[in-house]
Specification:
Elements (H helix, E strand, L loop, with lengths): L1 E2 L5 E2 L42 E8 L8 H6 L9 E8 L14
Length: about 100
């Protein structure tokens, strides 16, 4: 979800993948200012990359269904049989980005 500084809110799909049988996965995604691809609720998408609050939701859509797998990984719905939100992280506007020095090995 994107909470824009002007008060508008958007639910927008950024990435989706099928997890392998061993449970391993790698994720990556990004949203560009003004891009409305993947907007689910008709909202405006991301309007201000530095001023928006962003909530990242990792969602399990259930077992892969060959008939709807494209919808399962590219939408917020298409659950088989139910969806579960596994993790949620909040990223607030103006928060400092972490650097590798913040996490010494």
């Amino acid at each position: 979800m994107v909470f824009n500084p002007d008060g508008s809110v958007s639910v927008q799909n950024a990435a989706g993948h099928v997890i392998d049988e061993g449970g391993g996965a790698e994720f990556g995604g990004h949203l560009k200012v003004g891009d409305t691809d993947g907007v689910i609720d008709g909202g405006p998408g991301l309007l201000d990359a530095l001023g928006a609050n962003v909530v990242l939701v990792v969602r399990d859509h259930g077992p892969k269904d060959p008939g709807t797998v494209d919808e399962q990984i590219h939408t917020f719905g298409a659950c088989n049989p139910t969806c579960t939100d596994l993790q949620i992280s909040m990223h607030t506007a103006g928060s400092a980005a972490a650097s590798p020095d913040d996490y010494p090995i």
